[in-house]
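Narrative summary of target 7.
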Amino acid sequence: MHTNQQPPLDSKREAHAETEALRLLRQLCARLPSAIFHYRRRPDQTGCIPFASDGLALIHGVKPDLVREDASAFFAQVQSDDRESVIRSLEDSADTLKPWHHEYRVVIGNGSVRWLAVEATPEREADGSVLWHGCITDITRRKLSEQRLRSALDHVSRQQFAIDQHAIVAMTDVAGTIVYANDKFCEISGYSFVELVGQNHRLIKSGIHPPAFFTAMYEVIARGKVWHGEICNRAKDGRLYWVATTIVPFFDEAGRIERYVSIRTDITALVRNRMV
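Modeled conformation, tokenized:
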């Protein structure tokens, strides 16, 4: 008489839990905006990717099946200018067993370029191989944002250089205290940068304009509006000079005025000619 032995209940539960865990892991990998992978470098220096989630095809442009035994197709997708640095960073991680961190570009099938970041932790295996556990993330948006920011900063820098070469520029706080003065301002006023910064803008007041002139000007800029006009200032040596002036309010995140920027042009000769 034969008896059909059933596996213990605990074994069934363990098998079910394992199956469910694998199902959830595959589900998680499929939904992640990155690729989960293992990369193995064998003792003969050849490499393979024994496991990779489907995200590898989506963001790196290579199907996991193609690289399980040979990772050549993985590196073929890397843009040629970046391939050497990717391999060098991988070798350094293998030699030191430090985490593999690297950013690089891949060329997808339609010819578009995508920025990726790899983060992986290596371990030495018994046969001398090195196995990395990690993920690859698409950072294209971040890189494009960084490029736009660098371009914008470069544009602003060029504009500031042009302004500083030809305009008299100062910045004050809302109380009129000078917090910045460019070389042109120092040159025409006769004061050094150190002498100007921290002083109230009244330092260069000429006394030519009546109080109502400045009252009207402050009423405009206090409302957050731009003021244009001609002002006579007094230099350190007592010399009077005229400037065509534009004062622009700048606001903080709460919408309050925190700075005034004054951009001036020396029109002393023009005013003198008008007076003749």
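The CA atoms of residues 204 and 234 lie 5 Å apart.
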